[in-house]
Amino acid sequence: MTDSEWKERWHDVERFRLMALETTDPVAAALLRDIVLDLEAELNELVDVEAQGLPSLGAVA
């Protein structure tokens, strides 16, 4: 994954995090927090995969 791809992923996490903080609808805020948790988990998994030097998720061998 390139540096720009990492930055884009972190930008997405931050964007959803800010939306969750700014929304006044409790259901929307809860859904946005779930999205943030999913994005962070996916990003952490990608970090682990790259640290191990394994092929990226979804990569076709």
Give the helices and strands, then pairings.
Blueprint: H1 3-22, H2 26-52
Describe the structure.
By secondary structure, the chain is mainly alpha-helical. The chain has one domain (3-52). The chain has two helices and no strands. It has helices spanning 3-22, 26-52. The two termini are 16 Å apart. The model has no long low-confidence stretch (mean pLDDT 85).
List the secondary-structure elements in sequence, H or E.
HH
Q: What distance lies between the first and last C-alpha atoms, to the nearest angstrom?
A: 16 Å
Calculate the mean pLDDT score and round it. Answer: 85
Please count the beta strands (DSSP E, at least 2 residues each): 0
Total domain modules: 1
What's the shape?
A: elongated
Radius of gyration over C-alpha positions, nearest whole angstrom = 14 Å
The portion of residues forming beta strands comes to under 5%
Q: Which structural category do the helix and sheet elements fall into?
A: mainly alpha
Helical stretch tally: 2
Which stretches of 5+ consecutive residues score pLDDT under 50? none
Helix share of residues?
Answer: over 70%
Please outline the major beta sheet.
none
